[in-house]
Structures are given as C-alpha cells and as structure tokens.
Design a protein that fits this description.
This protein folds into two domains: about 70 residues; about 80 residues, no CATH class. Helices cover about 70% and strands about 0% of the residues. The protein has six helices and no strands. With about 150 residues, it is mainly α.
C-alpha cells in the first residue's frame, strides 16, 4: 500500500490536513461580516487535502541523487525544531495577544533564529508586514483578525 516516499508523506499530510480542517470548523464566527475569518483557513485545508491525494497517486520515482539530497545536518534539524517551537508559541499566543503583536514577534524571532542579524531590517519587516496584512484583511477584505490586547 505505502510503497513510495510520496505515498507515506501524502498519508501524513492527509491526516494533518483533516485535523486542521476539523479545527477550522471550530473557529469563532463574527456577525455582520460578509466573509468570516474561517473562510481562508477552510480553503487552505481543502487545498491541502486535494494536494495530498494528488501526491499519493504521483508515479515519479526517486533517483539515488535525489535520495542523497535528503541528508539533513544537525544544525538544520535544530533550526527546524526551533521554528516548529516558534510556530506552536505563535498559535498559543495568537488569540490572547492578537494578530499584530503575535505576528510581529513571530517574524522577528523566527528571522533571528534563522540567522538574520540586521536589526533595523528585522524591526521594519516585523512591524510593516503584519500591519499591511492586518489592514488588508480588516479593512479591504473585511475579514476580522483577532485584536488581542490592542484596542483596534
């Protein structure tokens, strides 16, 4: 049944996307908004399920050269674990601190953890990126993002 790496990965992705999609149906609904905050997460969940199914039936085989590329160094594994921990912290703090603060902290800390050390650029990107996204979602798309402890 699970002969290739693509089939094994597709099953893992399918289970993760099903769990993710289940959780999107538990998101809080906001009245008086044309597109609610759960719209995009649900669309992404369905897309991930469709891509997982396509990956399962992918017939391409892996060469020895491609297998050699899968060797991951210890530093890369530590970086992946660190980013995973930051993502979990982001999810935990998202509702409480709100989109703007949580995303700014996540972008800054994740970039710092991955080795980017230009402080001015980090601060500018960490503030501007979530601010632009917040404006786009809240005012142009009218999709409410969690406000958190900020009054807007």
């Amino acid at each position: 049944m699970l002969k290739t790496l693509n089939q094994k990965v597709s099953i893992v992705l399918l289970v993760l996307s099903a769990g993710y999609l289940y959780l999107t149906f538990n998101l809080k609904e906001y009245p008086y908004v044309p597109i609610d905050s759960d719209f995009i997460p649900k669309v992404l969940g369905y897309i991930l399920i469709a891509l997982s199914i396509l990956l399962y039936f992918d017939r391409s085989s892996e060469s020895d050269k491609e297998k050699a590329k899968r060797q991951v160094s210890k530093e890369d594994v530590l970086a992946l674990v660190g980013v995973g921990a930051l993502i979990i912290l982001y999810i935990v703090l998202f509702e409480w601190l709100g989109f703007l603060l949580t995303t700014a902290l996540f972008v800054f800390s994740c970039s710092w953890a991955l080795g980017y050390r230009r402080i001015l650029s980090l601060v500018l990107v960490s503030v501007l990126f979530p601010s632009v996204l917040y404006y786009l979602f809240n005012y142009l798309l009218q999709i409410r993002l969690p406000e958190g402890i900020l009054p807007f």
